[in-house]
Structure formats: structure tokens, C-alpha cells
Amino acid sequence: MPDPVILLPRLGAAAVEQLLACTEGDAGAVPESLPDAVTYGAVGGSRLAPADLRTLHDGVLAIARAAGWPGTSTKAARAEFDTACAIHLAQMPVLRSGEAHRGDVWAFMAAWLFRPITVWRFGVTPERHHGGIRNTFQRLWLRGVMLDRGEDNSDRWGLVRALTEDACVALLERPAVSADRRLALALAEGWVEASARYGQAAMQPVMRAATIRIRIRNEIYALADLSPEQLETTIDGIFSDAEAAVRAGRPV
């Protein structure tokens, strides 16, 4: 029989708003003492054990401390945390079920379990506490899962480390791209190659132009149907065309 699904704590939108209205949670949550508003899936599976919740809590806090939390909040420190935490979350067995696709699970983590880190990373911006692709931790888990080159790759997490925040946003916040992991991986690999040619500083407008072109091209024919070699060549050509358009000041 397959292993039962581990049900993760959930926190609804109203409860998140209540937590945002107070500062008590900024001092840090106690994993063994959950707020009354926490819920779990109604059927199937087993609730996450307190010891496993503590392990999840302590692992992320250790990563944050290594990046400088709570004292250091530079751009470099936040980027270091994002990269390390994305890799960590993507490898956690407890996050490999459908539970990890629920926004209210990530709302619990951002608004309660890791609230001090959320505030350190983004302040009290509501969208970083609520579930969704801009949730402080959901976006990192998605980044790690989407950009994982695979266990057999000698540079498995190279894309997670290489892509900038802007590049990751361009990938994850465009459903036409993020819905197809193969296409998203190819686009990420293309970004790495293009940034080596044009320089990382030039990549934000180039990535935006390339993404627009990919979305249009994907409407004409399914890029996912191309062979790996054809897809790589197509993406490379799109980046070259996008860079030329940006350099010439043409509309994209």
C-alpha cells in the first residue's frame, strides 16, 4: 500500500488577516502550540506529527540564521536565504504531496510558523503572508521544484543558484510558462546562456521580451512537442531575437 498522505496545517485568509493585525507573532511561533484557527484536510491521511513540524521549523530557521537573520537584511543576505531555502524546501519529503499545492498550507507557514522570517524578508506585506505564488515560502518551494535539474545531474541546483529574482518571477508568475515544467526548465537554461552572452545586468528587459515571444510562439504550436534539441535551439533563437529587439529599442 502507498504511504498515507501527511496532512499539513492550514490557515485561512481571515486568520491570516488577524495575525497581520497584531505583532505578537513577530517574536516567533512555538511549533508545539498551534493557533486555534489551524485546520487540516477533512479526509484521508495523517496529520503532521509535532516532531516533524519542529524539524521543518528548525531547518528553515537555521537557513535564515546562516543568511544573517535577524540582524542582517541586505539584498545579498535575502538572496542567499531565498536560494538556500528553495533548495531545502524542494527536497523535503513532507512537501512532495498535493498538500504542498495548497495556498492555505503556505499561509500557515508564512503567517505563523515562520512569521519572523517573513517579516524580515518582506515586512508585513499581506501578499507575502497569504497563500499564492507571492507567498514568502510558496514561491521558494515552487522555484526549487521547477528548477530542479534532477538527482542525477552533477549541478542539480545550478539554475536555482543562477537565476535572479526577476528571472524567477518571470518564470513562475506566467502560467503559460510555469504550467509546463519542461518549457520552464528550457527557458531557465536559455536565460543562463543568454546572461553569459549579454551580461546579467541586461537580462531583465531581454527576459521580458523573450517570455512574450515564447507565449506567442506557444499559441501557434506547442513548444512542449519539440525534441529537447529543437526546444533548446528555439529558445536560444528567441533570446537572440529578444536581445536584438531590446537593443534596437523596438516594441516587444
Structure overview:
The chain is mostly helical and 252 residues long. The chain folds into two domains: 1-151, no CATH class; 163-252. 57% of the residues lie in helices and 2% in strands. The protein is built from twelve helices and two strands, in the order βαβααααααααααα. It has helices spanning 13-20, 50-66, 75-90, 103-113, 115-122, 138-146, 158-162, 165-172, 175-178, 181-198, 203-220, 228-248; strands at 6-7, 46-47. Strands 1-2 form a two-stranded parallel ribbon. β1, α1 (13-20) and β2 (46-47) form a beta-alpha-beta unit. α4 (103-113) packs across α5. The longest helix has 21 residues, at 228-248. The model has no long low-confidence stretch (mean pLDDT 91).
Summarize the structure.
By secondary structure, the protein is an all-alpha fold.
